[in-house]
Each structure stands twice: as C-alpha cells, then as structure tokens.
Amino acid sequence: MEDSADGLTELTEATDGVTRLRSVVRDSWEELSASERAVARLLVTAQAERLLFASAQELGTESGTSNATVVRALQRLGYAGLPALKRELAADFTNAVAPEVRLKQRIAHVGRDLDGIWGDVFDEAQERIEHCRRLTGPETLKAAVTALAEAGEVFCYGVAASEVAARHLALALGRIGRRARHIGATGFAFADELLPVGRGDAIVVFQPGRALTEFTVLVERARAVGAKVVFVTDELGDAFADRVEAVITAPHTPTGITAESLTGLVVADALLLALTTLDETRAVETSHQLTALREQLLPEKERDGRGRKG
Q1: What is the DSSP letter of 248?
Q2: Which of 215, 263, 251, 262 is nearest to 88 (CA)?
Q3: What pTM was computed for the model?
Q4: Distance of alpha carbon 69 from alpha carbon 129, whole angstroms
Q5: How many helices (H) and strands (E) does the chain have?
Q6: Running DSSP on this structure, what letter comes out for residue 253?
Q7: H or E stretch covering 60
Q8: With DSSP H G I counted as helix, E B as strand and the rest as coil, what are the percentages for the chain, rounded to 5?
Q9: Which candidate, 200, 195, 196, places its Cα nearest to that of 152?
Q10: Which of 165, 173, 140 is nearest to 245 (CA)?
Q11: What's the CA gap between 117 and 194, in Å, rounded?
C-alpha cells in the first residue's frame, strides 16, 4: 500500500464500523506520525474478524511498532482505545454472522495452543479492564458512590450474564452492613420487584447493551418515588444519562473470549470498597457478626478445635 490516504482502499466487504475506521484514517492521515501511519495501514487492511481477536501487543508487532503506539494511534483516530474499536466492529460482526459461526471463528483463532489460549484470555481481560478504568472519571464515581451511600436500601438489577455482577454487589453490600437485594425479573413479574422501591433507596442497573422496556419503567418508578439510579453499562449511557445519578461505563466483550460480567464485577468491587471506607465502623462490626454466625454453623468438633487454637 502506498504511503498516502489514497491507498487506504483495499478492505472489502466494508461494514459500518470498518467504513468509519477507513474514513477517520483517511481524514487524519496527514496528522499521523510515521509509526502511527504504520498502525493505521494495518488496521484498514486487516480483516475485521482479525482485529476483533488481536491484542495491542500483536498489532504492534505486526505493524513494526509497539502496543503503546497502537493505543496512541487509535486515540489520535478518535477511539478511546482498542476495545472501543473492537466494540464498533463487533456490533457489525454480531449482526451479520450467526452465533455458531462466530463460535467456530473464535475456536479457529485460539486453536489448541494452551499458551496462546491463556494469553488471549488475559490480554482481552486486561484490555477491557484498562478501558473501563479510563472511561469513568472521578466525578462520575463520586456521584455513584454518593447515591449508594445515602440509600436506605440498594436494589441491584441484572439479568442473564449481568445477573452475576448484580448478585455479587447485593451480597457484598449486606456483608458491610448495608441493606441490599438482587432483583432480576422481566415482564409483569418485574412490577412486583419494583413495588418495594421507595424514597431514599437506590437502584444499580447492570446491563451492557440492549435497552429493555423494563429499564424505562424502572427509571420512571425511581423518579416517581424519589429513588436514585446508577447504570453500569456499555451502550445505554446516552439513553439514560439525563435521567439517572451516574452512568459508569463497563465495556462488554467484543469476542466472547472473556466473561460478559467481568467489567461489571470490577465496577461493583470499586463501589464496595468506596462504601466500606465511608463507614468503616459499620463494615467491621458487620464482618464480626458474620464471622460469629459462620462459626455457629460449623460442626461442634471444628468449633472446639478453633477454640483451643485461640
């Protein structure tokens, strides 16, 4: 490919994500350094499926640059990072390719190389977590923590893959002395779960994408009764940002290699640690009570053994 914007036309079967990528590369070409152009050239000539499974390190090696240059080039092109590009490409890929075909391509990519599989999973997990860290600023985190700290009870909503993070947050909140419960119904059953929500409560919604009718009803119910809402999402921020207290961006997996709930769990842990530090006395006392209850549930022989060791 020639070293100019006019040469950036080799990719076939362009999708919306690919078309945007080619467009921004062409528009930004003159502003890119030589090493950034090498990255950009690789991005527009590689197949979209290849980019979905590639790490920044792999793209750096293939372009003769480095993973830092890859990240810098993507940011110069207007992407928050490699996961942001993958998200756009994955949307087209998911819509156009059947799930079983995507699974076959994922298997074909990782092969049977155990070292490679291990590396692919950790690379994507690291990319998603770092991307999540960059996307949420301190003011957003403060708004979310404040909403939860002042809540009489916290309702943690999550269905399907998002249920894991929602249940984790609800359980862990209880273990630091805060009233919390998981809710996860859909349809008419969801109305029953919304009934207890009242003034001074808070709802944390875990949902990467796909705006469900339940979310609109949830937000309207919260506003009507004086409850606060925090969204942990990837794609729904724009739709709900002006109606909730905070939106924390938790990037979903573009490939399916790592668990969908990964970044939601990390966000939940950050919220938990912040709330623990705000009321250390309550957290420590609740932890003590939990330990005492657990010891009562131990078989008598184990309780006696622990007593003698103490």
Answers
A1: E
A2: 251
A3: 0.74
A4: 19
A5: 16, 5
A6: -
A7: helix 56-62
A8: 65, 5, 30
A9: 200
A10: 140
A11: 42
φ and ψ at 155, to 5 degrees?
-100, 125
- Both structure tokens of 130: 């770092």
> What are the residues facing 156 on neighbouring strands?
182, 204
The continuous run of DSSP H or E covering 17 comes out as helix 16-28
CB 204 within 8 A of CB 171: no
pLDDT tens per residue, range 251-288: 888 778 889 999 999 999 999 999 999 999 999 999 99
Give pLDDT tens digits for 87-134: 788 775 555 455 545 555 555 656 667 787 888 889 889 888 988 998
Q: Is the distance from CB of 168 to CB of 301 less than 8 angstroms?
A: no
Q: Are strands 228-233 and 180-183 parallel, antiparallel or unpaired?
A: unpaired
Most distant pair of Cα atoms in the chain: their distance: 80
What is the C-alpha separation between 210 and 233, in angstroms, rounded? 10
